[in-house]
Amino acid sequence: MNKFFYIVIFFLFINIAASEENTVIMKLQNGSVEIELFSEVAPKHVERFKKLVNEKKYDGVVFHRVIDGFMAQTGDVQFGNLNLDSFDLSRAGTGGSDYPDLKAEFSNLPHVRGTLSMARSADPNSANSQFFICLEQAAHLDKQYTVFGKVKKGMQFVDLIKKGEGSNGEVSKPDKIINISIK
Q: Looking at the DSSP assignment, which residues form a beta bridge with residue 131?
């Protein structure tokens, strides 16, 4: 009986540890957002995201495109980082990391409120560092963009991100990611 108990405890510990390594905390000006990453659904996208998180590439990156009732886009580590000399708000949304683009990992997961999905150009295999968080359901994106996570706590802080103007949602004086870390 004792052996069985220790085996159960061991597997619970392993599952908790694995769960925590796929949880990130994104600090915004109004509060912290806890995000679960879906490594089993989009392993390459999660691997890239975590790599950029560990390199602190997202710290200081602005939400350059925010459309009320749709999504908040960020992640341009090349032109959208307020902490770098390369920051250029007029070019934010056109850059990426120094790593090669990722192949699509589309799934059956829907784009619902809180979904974390990778941004890309018209080429399905062009995702790199930019991502967005759905503010509401966006079924027209399903199976067109790679879903790689979901907000678990703090969506109310995502809702407070400064909204953009016009149909493209361009934001003047945008909010930024203060930092992101793996839990």
A: 74, 118
Q: Could you give the residue ranges of the DSSP H alpha helices within the chain? A: 2-21, 43-54, 155-158
Spatial contact of 141 and 32, defined as CB atoms under 8 Å apart: no
Kind plus residue range of the DSSP H or E element containing 131: strand 131-134
Q: Is residue 149 within 8 Å of 37, Cβ to Cβ? A: yes
The predicted pLDDT at position 105 comes to 98
- Spatial separation of the C-alpha atoms in residues 134 and 8, rounded to whole Å: 37
**pLDDT for the residue numbered 133:** 98
Each residue of 101-140: b (16+ CB within 10 Å) or e? Answer: bbebbeeebebeebbbbbbbeeeeebbbbbbbbbbeebee
> Are 69 and 136 in contact, with CB atoms under 8 Å apart?
yes
Q: What's the confidence (pLDDT) of residue 23?
A: 97
Q: Which domains does the chain have, with CATH numbers?
A: 2-182 (2.40.100.10)
C-alpha to C-alpha distance for 169 and 56, rounded to whole angstroms: 26
pTM equals: 0.89
